[in-house]
Amino acid sequence: MPAAMILAAGRGERMRPLSDACPKPLLAAGGKPLIVWQIEALARAGYRELVINVSHHADQFVAQLGDGARLGVAIRYSREPWPLETAGGIATALPLLPAGVLLVVSGDIFTAFDYASLAAQREAMERNSAGARAHLVMVQNPPYHPRGDFHLTECGGLALAGGPRLTFGNIALYDRALFAGLPAGRTLRLLPLFERWIGAGIVSGERYAGPWANVGTPQDLADLDRRLARDGSAGLVLQPHRGTTTR
DSSP string covering 169-212, please? Predict the structure, then answer.
């Protein structure tokens, strides 16, 4: 059974004051917390063994989500003494994660991306036949990040130079072994690793053009809630305001 990790340890500084009392992934839009939208989507795609890293108001995740049974999944928690950034969070959670290829997503995005669509890529990476050890889902550059992050080449690789550039959508497959040599319990950013891996030619990517938003501010959350109330999740076109996505 494939495993997935949801990143949920951040403090959500730009979501203040809402995130002062509640972790950002537990803030609700469309009648349910942002992270529950993700959990339900992962469960539909067959990802039922989940690890969630938590730090800021960590006990609220356990109180609301429990062991995940009511959502049809099994949840284990990786507790961080302070938010360790993305790479540090993954490295610290490794003892809870199985060997092989992992799906890692952020708990504070909203998207209609079908995680089941990654099955063939994940299986190819498991067989070491994909030619990549990381696979990133890229999205159109939102207004707050017009320069994007990386160039998606015609052959499906990612490049540090060249254009046009796209934005990393905080959805990725990783060979677990990429993080095995990193120290646990230390703050580590993912961007330097991306630059190293892309330079080594071991990162592939794909473009996703459907609904996606990095819900970063109270206004973003209010806009998403209003649009979900009006349109539901199907076919929703989201235009978040500002933030950062490369972590």
Answer: EEEEEEEGGGGTTSPTTS---SHHHHHHHHHTT-EEEEEE-SSE
Cis peptide upstream of residue 2 (ω within 30 degrees of 0): no
Each residue's pLDDT tens digit, 148-184: 999 999 999 999 998 899 999 999 999 999 999 899 9
**Measured distance CA(72)–CA(122) in Å, rounded:** 22
As to burial, measured by CB atoms within 10 angstroms (0-12 exposed, 13-18 middle, 19+ buried), residue 141 is: middle
pTM: 0.90
